[in-house]
Amino acid sequence: MVVPSIKYQLFNMQDESVLAKGLVERIGLEGSVLTHQPAGKDKVVLNGDIKNHSIGIKMVLDALTHPDYGVISSMKEISAVGHRVVHGGEKFADSVLITPEVMKALEDCIEMAPLHNPPNILGINACAELMPGVPQVGVFDTAFHQTMPKHAFLYGLPYEAYEKYGLRRYGFHGTSHKYVSQRAAELMGQHMSNLRIITCHLGNGASIAAVKYGKSVDTSMGFTPLEGLVMGTRSGEIDPAIIPFLMKKEGMTADQIDTYLNKKSGVLGISGVSSDFRDIEEAAAAGNERAQLALDIFAYKVKKFIGGYVAAMGGVDAIVFTAGLGENSPSMRDKICNGLEYLGTRIDPVKNNIRGKAQEISVDGAKVKIFVIPTNEELVIARDTKAICASLV
User: Which reactions is this enzyme annotated as catalysing (predicted)?
Assistant: First the structure.
């Protein structure tokens, strides 16, 4: 079961400062709560009976305008709302102003993202109800990867499966891959159009992208976020024949095998410890062999994808680590990069001893630069929203 939540940030786009941020959790369940963090003030925890997204967003707006812990005087100061939308299929190669036609397209994509698009649609409808007339923008996880060529995104299925059902690789975490590849170019003092960058978004959900001259040309996640790397609870790529084999042996239904692959596999299933890499690293350090095996498998898979993408792009200029694990685990970064010296790169152990900070961590003079860059998907959404809404004035 997916427990719906609402994550939000309020930006002042004159200087891109964050005025407030927060999270509404357990919508429709007991123990629902809003955690609100105004800039420069103490965190506020608000419990309530949050039955649906409309109530949750109403609580957020009330918190933003509250006389004690609010950051704006009225809702009139909110000029636009940007939404992260997981799946836009082939319909959207960029962020768009949300219209009735766009909403219809999002509904058409539900079968490709049944766990994610319905809550996205609920959030958009709730904002439209509570803030009539305020423009809304959809920013798609899949959009950045729409530059992939057919030879990269098509599966070895009959072509009719693509034409009839859209069965192809779409890729996800697009806003993150876009942001960190742009930041890497800035840190190198170059333009993205001159660089080949491999971006590693490593967390409970994990994906890698090959960004060649500013465009995504391949990525590890596929038709759904299940494909690719071993993840927290997701299996990543497996032999497709395993699915009917398990269904027969274990008497599983389609829904049960879906849960098995998405919620019970990955490093959780391998280690038997946790889906949280921090717990697994701690268990491995204490001598748990399965926990160590889970870390070894994860690092090996990442390294394989990096090597494959170097080949796909005909070389690489920079490798970027981002997201929870990528930003905060020096040991995992070292484990992944150990053996990539043939590319002309090596991690500097002193530089690598950082967490959540944008910095080059490769040795001085390395041909291929290695970076840690904290992702900022919310800022990408805010920037795209501002750019689109500027044309409405």
Answer: acetate + ATP = acetyl phosphate + ADP
Annotated binding site: 7, 84, 201-205, 276-278, 324-328, 377
Backbone angles phi, psi at 289, to 5 degrees: -70, -40
In this structure, which long-range contacts are made by residues 99-102, counting pairs with CB atoms below 8 Å and at least 24 apart in sequence?
102/138
Per residue in 149-208, pLDDT tens? 999 999 999 999 999 999 999 999 999 999 999 999 999 999 999 999 999 999 989 999
Active-site position among 108, 141, 317, 364: 141
Higher pLDDT, 243 or 1: 243
pLDDT band at 1 (very low <50, low <70, confident <90, very high): very low
Residue positions forming the annotated binding site for ATP: 7, 201-205, 276-278, 324-328
Report the predicted TM-score, pTM, of the whole model to 2 decimal places. 0.89
CA distance readout (Å), 268 to 1, 155, 286, 293: 17, 28, 17, 11
Q: Which CATH number fits domain 81-170: 3.10.28.10, 3.10.25.10, 3.30.420.40, 1.10.1840.10?
A: 3.30.420.40
What value does the mean pLDDT take over residues 125-143? Answer: 89
Query: What is the sign, positive or negative, of the torsion defined by CA atoms of 98, 176, 17, 186?
Result: negative
Residue 2 banded pLDDT, cuts 50, 70, 90: very low
Domain with CATH 3.30.420.40 in the chain: 81-170, 191-377
Annotated binding-site residue numbers for Mg(2+):
377
Catalytic residue check, 42: no
Q: Return the half-sphere exposure (C-beta side, CA atoms, 13 A cut-off) of residue 91.
A: 20
Binding residues for substrate: 84
Please work out, in degrees rounded to the nearest 5, the angle formed at the alpha carbon of residue 297 by the alpha carbons of 294 and 299.
Answer: 105
Beta-carbon contacts of 219 under 8 Å, excluding residues fewer than 6 positions away, are 145, 148, 169, 171, 172, 177, 207, 208, 209, 210, 228
DSSP state of 81: E
Per residue in 45-66, pLDDT (tens digit) is 999 888 888 888 889 999 999 9
Q: How many other CB atoms are there within 10 angstroms of residue 345's CB atom?
A: 18
Distance CA 372, CA 357 (A): 7
DSSP 253: -
